[in-house]
Amino acid sequence: MRLRGWPGLLLCAVGCSGDPSSAGASPVAPDAGAAAEGGQEGAGSDSASDAPLFVTAPGSDAATAPDAPSVARCTHPPDVDGDHDGFSGAQGDCNDCDPNVNPGAYDVPGNGIDEDCDGTPDDEPAGCDIGLAIDSTDALAAATSLGICRRQAGKSWGLVSAAWVLPDGTSTSIPTLPACPQNLPPNPLSHGLLPSFGKNVTPRDGKSMVAISSGIARAGLQNVPPPGFGQSPVNGAMCTESLTPVGFPKDSPSCPNIVAKGGKVYDGMALEVQLKVPTNADGLTFDFDFFSTEFPQSVCSFSGYNDQFVALLWSSATSTPSDHDISFDSMNNSVNVNSAFVQVCAPTTAGGKTFACPLGTNQLDGTGMTTVTADGGVAYDQGGATGWLITRADVVRGETIALRFAIWDAGDNILDSTALIDHLSWRFTSSTASSPPVAPPITTPLL
After folding, report:
1. pLDDT in tens, 129-154
2. What percent of the chain has pLDDT over 90?
3. Which of 113, 187, 207, 439 is the most buried (most CB within 10 A)?
4. Where are the domains of the chain?
């Protein structure tokens, strides 16, 4: 388990680990849950104000702060939720002076505090993504690969469900290609649980990472099996078609003369997870890396025929965007080859934009996104990547959220792209404030 620094915040891996905008199947509508409701309703409670929030510790002549449970003890009646976290002592709250401690909380490793009140501090499940099959079709295994080691049960936080779906949330394809059977499920070749991608890209946390692709979700050149439509990652047609999520396609602000291609999209793949948020978490983060063979030839060109990666969040947090997409660059470009995030490449000018490629080409080696030159060398002329990025977004304590990671090709089914996703984490404020600061979603490069 790794902790990641954040100004004023503590980050910790999840598993160490609204209306739904879908044209098809919809995620569960977010519910702020009892914990969030308790925090809002109890603020002026007479019964809470009648009892002290903490008392003087034995042997001490000074009051002890509520966030030091090894010393503090509460005097609230068992049926009173004194800290307004949705749980009373009778409901299992082992420190009713601290809203970050209750049976629905995440047990933060290494601090000696039993946040989830199970009797043992620092025992959050971890290391659950060992030995996963690369070609597993089990979406629950994919959630494990992200670092989600706890299944939701009773009062606890955790994974509620997971499913492989198409970008619009539906589970069957609507293809128009004559050779493609109707009503296919999402193509299992378009997802994978990878221990590495190419020669130089490894998981951000644990032993595996989720890959979703508009071709075959593996590194290297891969032939699409029968009915057979070419070789991935250049021309891997995967026989799946769907609609886009509501609110897409979106034009790229950095390409003012290009209109995004609408209608059906091709070769789509998505992983959707539903999670009950810990009652001490105010946000989430995840890491991702986007690779595409559309770079550089499709930058701001071809009438918007671009592969697209989105991360759609359904949450009751007020900062959740109306289109639910929480991964975009500083110009509001979605994640595609027009994004300012493309930094893994050979320096070039394309589509009127100059790419300095500060991260070099190292991440492309062995991915199949290179070509062999006449003299037997390697040319980095048909692929680029963003490098690892981190997205951060608000959630509401104790609610149930839906998170859908999706990728698709717009306008055609050639020139494949792959997104790697890993290290889904919760974000915690360092205080016990009942109203944590609101922050819009943000995506930035990982240093």
Report:
1. 999 999 999 999 999 999 999 999 99
2. 64
3. 187
4. 1-35+128-447
